[in-house]
Amino acid sequence: MTLLDRFRTQPQRHPDPAVRLAHLGEIPLTERELIAAIARDDDDARVRRAAVAKLMDPVALGAICRDDRDETVRGQAAEMLRDIALEAFEGIAEADSLEAVDALGDVRALSQIAKTGTREIVALRALSRIADVRLLGSIARHAASEAARRAALERVRGDNAEVIAVAMNSEFKDTALAAVDLVTDSAQLEQIAARARNKSAAKRARAILKDAEERAKAEPAVAPAAEAPAAIEHDRGVQLQPDLPANDDIRLEPDPTSTEAAALDDERSRAEEDASRRNDQREQEAAVERDRAQAAAEEETRRVSERRHVRLAELVTMAGAAVADPDLASARRQLGLTRREWKDLVTGITVDETLASKYAEAESAIAVREAEARDADARARREALARLQHLMGRVDGLVARPDLSLKAADRALRDVRTALGAVPPLPSKQDYDEIVRRLKAAQTVLTPKLQDLRETEEWQRWANVGIQEQLCMKMEALKSLEDPEAIAHQVRELQQQWRMAADVPRVQADALWRRFKVAHDEVWARCEAHFAAQAQERAENLARKTALCEKAESLAESTSWIQTAEEIKKLQAEWKTIGSVSRGREKAVWDRFRAACDRFFTRRHDDLARLKKLWAENFAKKEALCAKAEALAESSDWEPAAADIKRLQIEWKSIGPVKKSRSEAIWQRFRAACDKFFARYAQRHDIARAERVAAREAVCAELESLSAAEGGEAPPNLLEHIRVIRGRWQQELAARGVDPDRARALDERFAAAFASVIARWPAVIAGTDLDPDANRKRMEAIVRKIEDLATSLAGPSTGAADAAALSPANRLAAMLKEALAANTIGGKVEDDGKWRAAMEDVRQAQNAFSRVGQVPEEARRQLADRFQRAIRRISERAAGRASAAPMTAGPGRSGRPGGSGRPSGA
How far apart are CA 505 and CA 409, in angstroms? Predict the structure, then answer.
């Protein structure tokens, strides 16, 4: 609880005005009687003024405005009455506004209410209490309410100068036109037409002057026309006077004699003829008059049409001037006056199309400007709303802050009052009402807070008096110290504390400051020698740092990056050992040194960035080579892969360096890939052998899995599957390089698996090229055919067994004998053809033998041995024949003794 809270036990009777003022801030606005009592009876003018600022009772405010002894309180009451009359606060009733007007005695405040009042009745009530003609004229010119302007104009009707002022300076069209209608002097009308602020008023004055001129011109022509009917009637009267006896009321008495009767009859007939003639004459004169009147009317119509077209042209010009007027409101008023007159003039006549189109263009241009103005106005209203909402957000945030300062609160309250006094047009009435409500609510909250903050500041000033006295005593106590540094340090601390407690009542402020300053000056004088020595030291430090700057600047352009960097680091380390320099020079010398260092290290950084970019590019290239080498490391295409690896090694050497921290790793990666390939390259034969063995094992495994398949029925496409497996096996057999023992074991494994498949599904295999029995028979047939061929080639005298039993010498003799027997022209040709056919049969038999399918191994081996023996017999027979042929050839058939030739088909 603060000291003020303890004082508020009986706040209304408390002797301290600050306590009473704080209590007043807590009283709600609805307590009008209590607030009015405080405003009337409190002894302190500040309290009464604050109470008047919260009082919403017009009657009480009027009494205070008249009777209070303090001028500021009376002024505050007058302001409150004015604000209530102008509805500056939320919830003001019409009756309160009228009472506020009645209670006001300030004529200028009443004039302001009459001008700006939003309620018409309130503005008229304020106007009724004003008698000053000048104020009435100002109201007639500027009042927001039309009724107030009209009433004020009626009040100044007798003052010609004010009427002219209203006509020339009023911003409102209705008031300006009404004032122009009251002016009768042509000179004054000309002045209004030339200088009126409102364009409509100027136009009306010009129209009045023009009508007056036209009437003045028309008066001499009208007078003779008015006299002509009278003269005609006079002439008619003279002519009719002799015929008066012809009236039916006049009767003639006949003469008794016939002569007299006849004379009377003649006279009567002549009178009738004269009357008929006069009637005809009158009808002719009437027709002439009608024709003359019609011609005059037509002429008048023509003149009116011409005058109207002339005026329409002027209106088009005026419309163009309105379009060119930068003031849209003035342009709109001018065009409005022009539009009304245009509508009146075009009635009953045919308007020229050019004038009509120009006038339509002017109206379209004004319409476009009005649309743009509406958009701009809407945008301005939205911006105004945004500004006010931003203001309210800031004010609400300030109000909610517990650490609200007096300065911030005062500024916020001023902003709120300024905004409340001149609320700009907003997008809607709802927005206007909401903003006004929030502004008034913020004003209501900020006013007591500001008062509390002011009281708190006053208490703080009172507390600062004690703080400054203690600071003065501390400053005086420094006289006993001897260390200048300690004195200077404590002096600075005391000066800082003094700044924090500088706000004290004005009565004590000067005395305390003089006491503090006298002690400060006496103590500070003892430090001046120390500061002089310190200044000398700082000057020396400045010289040393300047020298370091020069060295750094000389090294800034060096390209010896490592050595120069070490030297600059040494300079930086030396800089740190040097103390402070002269005041005001620290930043300049430090900026100079840092600029030199930054220049070198920036250049080094740029060069390093360039090298890093180059290293990164080289690293990317080497990574690509590593990826290629790693892809080739597993290749089995040995020679092309070895050539590619060697080419990659050559390309590696052509690539520049990479970052040192990554160089060894990327090199080891590349080298490992190359070593891996060449290690595999050295073992390529073993690898190829292992691959071939693995391929044969895969074929055997596939065939074994086929034979081990579950189910009794044969799988679909079993025969095709077996043929594919067998084809793969034959391809693998064609690839040599497998160890004989391993090849034999795999052959046995394949044969066992194949036999298992055949044994499991013999019906599927029977009769096909995979049937072992059928294959054996085909193989036996091929063998018998070759054996028969060998027997037939051995000759009729020597069978196969005999040929085999002969010794080599005997076989050679037999062969020579056969060669000699066949050494004839016809026999030689036939014998060559037979041997060529035999060798072709052997080749075909070998191909057929190799294509025979699976046969049991024992039978295959026996048949293969027989087949090879038969082929050897044929080959030996062919070889013997070839060796015997040259011995029988004569010198004419062989170029030299012992010449040899290859037998056909060998």
Answer: 21
- Which residues contact residue 352 at a Cβ distance below 8 angstroms, ignoring those fewer than 6 apart? 309, 312
- Nearest-5° angle of CA 276, CA 281, CA 287? 130
The pTM is what? Answer: 0.30
Domain end marker among 164, 194, 212: 212
Cα 664 from Cα 670, distance rounded (Å): 10
Is the pLDDT confidence value at 354 over 50? Answer: yes
Domain boundary among 728, 753, 770: 770
pLDDT higher than threshold 60 for residue 182: yes
Res 129 pLDDT > 80? yes
Decide which of 445 and 275 is more confident. Answer: 445
Q: 278, exposed or middle or buried, with CB in 10 Å at 0-12, 13-18, 19+?
A: middle
Angle at 366 between CA 365 and CA 369, to 5 degrees: 90
- Residue 894 or 584, more confident: 584
CA dihedral sign, ordered 183, 189, 195, 197: positive
Backbone dihedral region of 503: left (phi > 0), alpha (psi from -120 to 50 degrees) or beta? Answer: beta
Question: Within this chain, do residues 25 and 174 fall inside the same structural domain, yes or no?
Answer: yes
CB 856 within 8 A of CB 776: yes
pLDDT in tens, 605-622: 888 888 888 888 899 988
Q: How far apart are CA 853 and CA 725, in angstroms?
A: 12
Contacts 24+ apart (CB under 8 A), 572-579: 572/597, 574/548, 575/545, 575/548, 578/541, 578/544, 578/545, 578/548, 579/537, 579/538, 579/541
CA 168 to chain centre: 52
798 and 751, same structural domain? no
- Kindly give the residue spans of alpha helices, DSSP state H, lying in 325-352: 328-346
Q: Where are the alpha helices (DSSP H) in 683-824?
A: 684-707, 718-734, 740-760, 762-765, 772-794, 800-805, 808-821
Tell me, yes or no, whether 20 and 138 share the same domain.
Answer: yes
Q: Is there a domain that residue 604 lies in?
A: no
3-state helix, strand, coil in the chain (%, to 5): 80, 0, 20
The answer on 790 and 759 residing in a single domain is no
Element (H, E) at 639: helix 638-654
Calculate the CA 535 to chain-centre distance. 58
Contact 638, 684 (CB under 8 A): yes
Spell out where 764-840 has E strands.
none
Q: State the Cα–Cα distance between residues 196 and 164, nearest whole angstrom.
A: 9
Predicted confidence (pLDDT) per residue in 33-69, tens digit: 888 888 888 888 888 888 888 888 888 888 888 888 8
Same-domain check for residues 150 and 14: yes
Mean pLDDT computed over 289-298: 75
pLDDT of residue 884: 53
State how far the Cα of 206 lies from the Cα of 167, in Å rounded to an integer: 13
Asked if the model's pLDDT at residue 372 lies above 50, the reply is yes
Give pLDDT tens digits for 514-553.
Answer: 888 888 888 888 777 777 777 888 888 888 889 989 988 8
Instruction: Considering only residues 573 and 860, tell me which one the structure prediction assigns the higher pLDDT.
Output: 573
**Residues 765, 784: one domain?**
no
Q: Is the pLDDT of residue 150 over 80?
A: yes
Inside any domain, residue 200 = yes
Report CA torsion sign: 637, 642, 643, 645: positive
Is 94 within the bounds of a domain? yes
What average pLDDT is seen over the chain?
Answer: 77
Count of domains for the chain: 3
Residues 7 and 36 in one domain: yes
Spatial CB neighbours of 82, under 8 Å, sequence gap ≥ 6: 100, 104, 106, 109, 112, 113
φ/ψ of residue 315, rounded to 5: -65, -40
Q: Give a yes or no: residue 193 inside a domain.
A: yes
How far apart, in Å, are the Cα atoms of 847 and each of 784, 852, 855? 15, 9, 16
Q: Which domain holds residue 732?
A: 683-770
Tokens for 387? 């500004």
787 and 876, same structural domain?
yes
CA–CA distance, 644 with 673 (Å, rounded to integer): 12
